[in-house]
Amino acid sequence: MVAPAPSLPTLSELVERAAHGDRQAESTLSQRFAPAVRAFARRRLRGVEATEDFAHDVLLLFVEALRRGSVQEPERLGGYVLGICRKLALDRARMNERRAELWEQFGESLAPLAPEATARDCPYELIHLEDCLSRLSQRSREVVRLGFIEAQGNDSVAQALGVTEANARILRHRALSSLRECMSRTISWEAA
Amino acid sequence: MTTSAEALQLLDDYASGVLPEAEALAYEEELFERAAAGAASDALFVDRLALLGRFLQGRGGLAMGSTRAQVEALHARGFRIHTIEIAAGARVDLTPFPDDVEIVVTKIVIDARGFDHLEVECRTLAGQPIKTFRDVQCDPEEGVLYAVCEAPLARLSLLAGPVVATLSGVRAGQRMVIGSVETHPTP
């Protein structure tokens, strides 16, 4: 869905820069991990709000660690962030108290991760997605809406569509494949 | 950035809880390593789908055909909306709309009530297929079609040149043409 960046700084450089207060480096690292963190959250939580809250909490802690210079082994950064996810998943109640304080201190670093910012930063992907969604059947669009946009589980998708959970899983996969295939081509109006 | 269908399906099985716990633990180790390397294109694809989809959902962009009430609700929320009204059977010149327009509403004045599985097929004047909007909904009270789309996509559609849009639907088991419109972009 996006073109590869020409020459990205290394993880070590980004971590080093973030430790010295480079907000852009923090943002780059946060954006790099955000999809994986949300995937982690979607496995364990249901609903947009719950998954977004979890992702914000993880990334806030991550940014905090970067700024403190706590990330000692940049080459193991994936495991480091996953460790934050796992710890947080086990410690949700305690985090709720700390969240407001963290948001106040570091929230600005996460602004680029909001839907509005993503739409602003990815205008072509936005209308490409809109174009591709309009080519799906009503049922596939409903699967996309429930399963991916609203982060509902297979049980909820199955109930809404009147199918089994196994069929809901297949419908999710088909919808993803259709969108992937469509998004790999140009927007239909461009091809005319 | 590309990702395979298999990678997306595995990610979906992981995220939706289908993947057994032991496999999921190993999968997420690998996922975060790829994320660190900027190579989690599967997660990025699904994430963009969720974020951009949510953005579109809040602006009427997910519905293939809106009701009059839904369009009025968009106006009430303060979006800068450009409306194009076309009567069925008409040929209309489409003029460029202001740069600050956010959403374009195309109102096709037709009565599509009583038809199922509405489709709008768009072709060039030469008959080349451009795209088909599937399972479109009309306003249940007026039968009118309100198509809502992001302004940049509407601008892009103008570049396709003259277009014939044909609305069809299924009634009594047969698909039939309800009406068509012809649009001609002008500079």
Describe what is shown at a glance.
Chain A is mostly helical and 192 residues long. Chain A is 74% helix and 0% strand.
User: Approximately how much helix is present in the residues of chain B?
Assistant: 25-40%
Largest interface: A-B, 69 and 64 residues
Span from first to last CA of chain B? 35 Å
Q: What separation lies between the terminal Cα atoms of chain A?
A: 21 Å
What's the multimeric state? heterodimer
Structural class of chain A: mainly alpha
**Which geometry of chain B do the CA atoms define?**
elongated
Helix count of chain A equals: 11
Q: Roughly how many Å is the radius of gyration of chain A? A: 19 Å
User: What is the share of helical residues of chain A?
Assistant: over 70%
Low-pLDDT runs of chain A = none
Average pLDDT taken over every residue of chain A:
88
Key terms for this structure?
heterodimer, A: 192 residues, mainly alpha, 11 helices, 74% helix, globular, B: 187 residues, alpha/beta, 5-stranded mixed β-sheet, 3-stranded mixed β-sheet, 5 helices, 33% helix, elongated
Structural overview:
The complex is a heterodimer of chains A (about 190) and B (about 190). Chain A has about 190 residues and is mostly helical. In chain A, about 75% of the residues lie in helices and about 0% in strands. Chain A has 11 helices and no strands. Chain A has helices at about 10-20, 25-45, 50-70, 75-90, 90-105, 115-120, 125-135, 140-150, 155-160, 165-185, 190. In chain A, helix 2 packs across helix 4. Chain A is globular. The relative contact order of chain A is 0.10. Chain B is α/β, with parallel strands linked by helices. Chain B is built from 5 helices and 8 strands. In chain B, the strands form 2 sheets. Chain B has a 5-stranded mixed β-sheet with strand order 2-8-7-4-5, with no helix packed on it. In chain B, a hairpin with a 4-residue loop joins strand 4 and strand 5 (about 130-135). Chain B is elongated and about 60 Å long. The relative contact order of chain B is 0.16. Classes of the chains: A mainly alpha (about 190), B alpha/beta (about 190). The interface between A and B is large, with 69 and 64 residues.
